Amino acid sequence: MKGRGLAVAISATALLPVLGLLLLVLWMGFWQNGPGEPIVYTTSHFRKIFTDAFTYKTFLNTLGFATTAVLVALFFAIPLAWLVERTNLPGKSFILAIVTLGALLPTFFTAMGWVFLLHPRIGIVNRFLMDIFGLTQAPLNVASIVGMGWVEGLGLSSIAFVMIVATYRSMDPALEEAARVHGLGIFRTLLYVTLPLTFPGILAAAIYVFTIALSAFEVPAIIGLSNKIFTFATFIFYKIQPLEELPSYGVAGAVSTILIILALLLSWSYFRLLRFSHRYAVVTGKAYRPQPVELGSKGRLLAWSFLGFYFTVAKLLPLLLLVWAALLRYFQPPSWAALAQVSMNNFYGLPWKLLLHGAWNTLILMLAVPTLTLFLCLAISWTVLRSGVRFRVLFDAVAFLPHAVPHLILAIASMFAALFLLRNVVPLYGSLLILVFVYTISRISFATRIINNSLAQIHPELEEAAFVGGLKLLQVMRKILIPLLKPALVYAWIWMALLCYRELTMASVLVTSQANVTLPMIVWSLWLGGSLNQAAAANLVVLICMVPVVLLYFVFGRRSRIAEGA
Amino acid sequence: MISIAGVSKNFSADDRSVAALRSVHLEVNRGEFFVLLGPSGSGKTTLLRAVAGLEKPDQGEISLDGKLVYSRSQGLCAPPEERQVGMVFQSYAIWPHLTVAENIGLVLTHGRLRLSKKEAAARIHHSLSLVQLQDFETRPARLLSGGQQQRVALARALAINPALVLMDEPLSNLDARLREEVRANIKKLAVQIGMTVLYVTHDQIEAMMLADQIAVMAHGEILQVGRPAELYRHPASALVAEFFGSINWIRGMAHGNNRVETELGPLWVADSRHCHGAVIVGVRPEDVHLQRSSNENENRIEGKVRNSVFLGDQIVCEIDVRGKILIAKGSPNDGEPSDTVFVYLPRERLVVFSDRVPSDSLG
Amino acid sequence: MIARKKIVRIFCLIAGLINMPAAGQAQTLAQLIDGAKKEGQLVLSWGTGTMGGIEGAQTMEKAFNKKYGLNLPFKFSPGPAMPQFASRIIQEEKAGQPASSDLFIGSENHVARMSLKKLDWPKIFPHITKPMTDWDNRVLIVVSRTPGFTYNTNLVRANEVPQNIEDTLNPKWQGKIASTPYAASFDRLALAWGEEKTTAFMHKFTKQVAGLIRCGEEERVANGEFAMLAFNCDLADANDMREKGAPVNGRIFKDAGILSYWYLAVPSNSAHPNGASLLAAFLLTKEGQDILWNTEKTSSHLVEGTYMYKFVKEQERQSVKFYANPVSDVVKNQENQSRVRQKFQDILAGK
Question: Choosing among A121, A142, A235, A243, which should be mutated to test the C contact, i.e. which has the most C CBs within 10 A?
């Protein structure tokens, strides 16, 4: 196989920075002073953290919050994926479009919205329930760990859905059919066959959601702190962004180390499980498309109720609040008095020029990052699944790491790298390039999961036939693999573009100038600057611009079956 | 046992509709080993899956054991779990997350029967012993070889004592030697248990060895149903004839009697009354007899041996008869054929179709 | 390691050499204007909630260029919060990179840690008085703020509005008060009250506090989630919200008058120091202050005729005594002040 070395080399080049950045974070945790100052090593940060009871409280809060978020996200994502992938439910393109568009809603509106709904004092739902049942105390409290997890989980259900759909698609449908034929029925088949078999994929999605929740800031900051509930993310955030102090990155590094260790433990258990499940991939002998499960009228009603509930709480509600906020001068719960104040003022006052600049940068990122990531991940997936080189599992493990390491930490590490290690080599700092670089690294795991799934479906003989015919690896990639993987690649590309569009955690650390300002960063700084309503207006404008793009994708996608490609 | 009436099914792909089944009628009797034979794309797997309930036809009716399971007119389509069949999949569909015993146990305890664990254990053991895998109960299924997986799939299909077992090319993923062994085992089990089997394959040898009845399918239609020998000797069409092994085709003109004017001269056939105009006359190579001399005239033509290959149990010759090459198979005991021979084509062995020579598309 | 440090030093030296002459020579207004012309542009960045954000920068660009007869384009991008930004400029300075913003705005605690350019402001600019400068002419007071509390006018009736800070301990407000996660302004209270008294108060106060919200999230008081935010960072946000029609108001505690400042400073790694100095001086004129007032409702009490000038005078007339924390003090007492702040934060967080 000519060109094998090249593929392996590309994979290694893509994965080395991942390791490098992680080591940098670990190293950082031992610095006495800020970066750039003479390095004095200390273990005081760790001592301080481990001897402080507050750390353990925060740790438990974080675990509880992230676990709830995972459970909520999976609760919605698994049935949703199953309905879309395995049943005859009509309107699948519509469901996909809503889920995709829903991913563009910023979390901080959702968070504020849920405060309005479920706050013990001002929550509309609470007041309603108290009136009906004559309660003296509010039955629901969003400002709790479960409440925070609920809001975060709803936001993350889209991404969990995407990953789980891919898993369903890579499973031999005959495994489910065998259960149906032998009398198990839909529900038992789901319980005893489908769920256990898709478990590795669900677990991967769970880990992904979990780590995002670990470093999620908005919900813990808006909802958690209103009840003095700290998580690691808010803890780190106020270490990096205190009001009067300078950021103490050493402490942040030390806390990050704990998170990384947690994440590594997760990855390790994931891979142990995967080793056992690698042989799950039973390649089908036939190219038939499985007959979708027939939902009866009862099942259909149940499915639509479920979908309706999900779309209402996870998508419609935040969207309505976004519109509501954009039309008001200050954010307030819906009321007739508030309705009288509705105006378009927020739109007139928007920084259009800057938004245009941000849109341009964001567009470049949305084009460059998915393309670059796919290029690298093709090489990585091929190295892992096909090259037969030793240590290929190691490649897979490293490719999984960005999946498990909070993005905030990746961003901090690369900022340091750009400022102090690479400044004489590549002028990355403050450029759009550094965003391309870090975004790409952070998405490697996401893309490799999807490509691995699809590549495993393609029989190696298809490539081997081409190799035998004298084609080189690059030609095989171009002529055989890429066309065959196209649906999955396009799907992954679109999703990464969307993730790029909404990426804020990393941008908040790395955006330093007009040269690399992004749209979400503008929205975020409008919000931080105290004008939530302008932020809403800006976001609405951007969202409206995205609608035709997403619709175009589905119209075009239906024709070329891209929408089904995950 | 199985009664299929007017079943049609269309698939739409890329905005085009492809007919997978065209108004198929079929009757399978209790205890019969019934094989659906046809090339890929002939609709045989679709038909099998429609019987299993995995595919919903667009038209027609299907009943199993006298019970209607699908009817377009009544808007009925029983889900697979209510049809009480066993099924062996081409990919075996052995659940990789379970052990061998659990693979079978799951359908016993959670399928229609809802057996207790204890009852199930006995059944598991029994069905595994049928396929000689009783020592593998605790083995994780994913660690089995292909042949063993196939046997587990079979044991699973048999465990629920189904009245009907469906098999979808169960041998196609096995190597040649293993295939023969498993094939014999399947036949033995079928006879032993007395079950009804609907079996899909594209291999006519497999079909002939296993089947009581064969239905030959092509392009979503059933071309002919019959016992193996019947299909071999009396194919209803050139297509069927081609599908059961090699055959020589001779062009000719028929006039509604037993005599056909062919490119080899006049040939007497058993029956060609229904044929008028251009026909083809088919004769299988083993029915092309070679004689050194000829006393009689009927269906005897002089030819030259162009090539002969000795295959141990038979000799295959290419004979040039008036510019047309005929293939003949003879016994080696008859001795080496001489250069010039008389070809004898017995009239009861000739088949006549008003058809053109079928293409090689039948694989 | 050593080699790297050496490179850093050489780099800084070179950067310094390039910058020195321009800054060193500019001792008159004409020189500054001339230098600014050569620099060709201004790269600016601060948070959107500071100095009018994007809108403020646009207004400044026009007025500033008109005032000095210049044509400098402002390259403004919204930046992160002040401390992060200060840290970024410090790191950029150490890494030998030009600062992300030619002009920095921040509190005394931020500027005190930075490497800044000096300029004899009062000598070059007649409108800049000595009290407006601090830390040997490194920084200029551009905004004066008076932290107090923001309250919901529906939930807190006129006769219940706290006058003194102890009034927040009224059981009526228990579980309805918000404070900030960074314990804003309590450190400055300690300057007036002393650490011990403030700590004792905070232990009582934290029991009243239900949650922590940022300054700038005053609408959570407006919509009734909390009855009060104490301390806030300034009264400007509350006043702004009230003008938008929200049921909130902001007051200062009569016994805890605090003046906290935002300073303008030109980082030593500013790429366009002349223009930056001119802009800083411009913002201290009444014209510049008017821009800040119109866009962000902030002003300096040291510039005659501004809102804050009148407000502070009025409060002082009502015998409120104001305390401030000069940058030169911060430079001396940095570590102690940090410790106290951390302690207060821990108390509020419920550690």
Answer: A243
